[in-house]
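User: I'm putting together a teaching handout on how sequence relates to shape, and I'd like one worked example. Could you take Transcriptional regulator LeuO from Pseudomonas ogarae, show the sequence you're using, and then write out its predicted structure as tokens right after it?

Assistant: Happy to. First the sequence, then the structure tokens directly below it.
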Amino acid sequence: MHNSLRRLDLNLLVTLDALLAEQNVTRAARLLNLAQPTVSLQLGRLRDLLDDPLLLPGPRGMSPTERARELQGPLRDALAALESALSPVAAFEPGRSHQTWKIAASDYATTALIWPSLSRLRHLAPYTRLALMNKPTVDFAKDLENGLIDLALHTRDEAPPKLRQRSLIHERYVLAARRDHPALATRLSLKAFCALEHAIMSPDGAGFVGSTDHALAAEGLERRVVLSVSNFNSLVSALVHSDLVAVVPQSLVKHEPALHVQAPPLAIPGFEMLMLWPERLHRDPAHMWLRDLIASTLETTGAQK
């Protein structure tokens, strides 16, 4: 089959389709906007390639052979499918779309980057669906390329270099505790900060060291981390119901009414969050729309750029 296709010129198939429809060389030439001798030459080539006369002289012009009749329907369908495949991509209509997007996002990324966009997404694209999955760094690049996920939200320092990317926010760290926490009623010294009991959010719920500890170690200090949890909701609940404090990304807690938030007493390097996607989806209208929605919502809500 492939050898036959390599021998064919697509223009010959278009000419054959016109000849079978018109059953007249002159009319087919006019339809194709070609000179009649050119169409006659192409008919000759088609006869040689297909080893069949295809069109024979008749009392009312030309009559197709049985081989030509067998070809007419499949040829028309194949050309229509090819034309559809090569046509410009239709514009995305969010109000009518039944698209399902699959996004790899940590607990932090979901809270800080997806939740602000969710209400707007549901309003503008009510029939679409969103699947949020927590993927480890070693998996999501391959899953993006293989189509298992469509978009990933991740830090710049761990972003695979071959993926397309767009910066969303530059995150900073803050100190959070329950609103009436007695230790935060006045300005907190670094010594008092280290003496408090701290909670930390760790993806596997087993880590007791984070960016804050690295910053303290550079000053020859350490703090007391007594609780490690695997998700943001557990961390907020722990802070609300105890005297624990936590150093967390600002986006996680800036809208939590039960928490008091202030700058920590030492500088802790923040991080940049990106959207990441594969080349195969770079120009996909639905994917472009979703990326723009997330980015523009974060800009509108005042996330740090």
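A couple of points you could highlight for students: The chain has a mean pLDDT of 89. Residues 18 and 31 are 7 Å apart (CA to CA).
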